[in-house]
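[agent] plan:
  1. take the single chain provided in the ticket
  2. run structure prediction with default settings
  3. attach structure tokens to the ticket
  4. add a short note for the reviewer (M.T.)
[agent] executing step 1
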Amino acid sequence: MGIFATLTHKGAHAEATADADPAAEVQGTLPTRFVAVGERLAAGHDAGTACALVGRETARDGADLGEALDGLRATYAQILGGEPDFGAVRALCQAWSEETLGYLHQLSCEDPLTGLASLAHLRAKLAEVYRAADLGGQSAATSHALVVVDLPRLAGPPRWDAFESALVLVRLAESARLAFPGGQTIGQTSSSRLVVVAPRGDLLARRVGLLRDLVGDLDPEAGRARVWIEGLPPAEDGGALLLDEIARG
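[agent] step 2 finished; step 3 output follows
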């Protein structure tokens, strides 16, 4: 006899019939993936952890949030005769969202052609810099800076066709990696701008100078390529605003 031998309902208790196995009967009618949730509810335990597991599983299986919530509602109706409580809904939704966002982040963090990080990934990296600085009792403004590369011809009236523009962007990314070979995060904020999240130190000015020379060779006729250092504001919110401003520029 399983834990479903006696089903707990709101305001009443219903005895399982003696000529049937209630555990098998109830488990067989619960929505897919929700058996563990039903078991927790029938035993009178909190189902938050089980709901979170279901949320992650449904997201990994490609089910939408509405489908997961329908399953949760059906499970609560069958076991307790009522609606899911706020904690259960929150646990399922949060887990589903985190799993989905993690998957989307993996898809969008890097451009497959250039290897450049997306703007969203740059924001995440910058947030990591601020958190690490806080934990170390330092300031992100003194530990890191943003190195900005701007090649206006990539954003202005077409000078190259689409294929040539893509090649220039690839070369621009390669130049940034050559100047900053330490695994720094290098991302694209707009059609003509790259940003390097670079640690400050004695070599920063040299690396920027090398990058400026390399970038200048990509568009020698225009003479408008620019490379400069942006200092980070003390607070994380200011750093995010600075990145947005660079992206709009």
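[agent] step 4 note for reviewer: The first strand starts at residue 6 and ends at 9.
[agent] ticket updated
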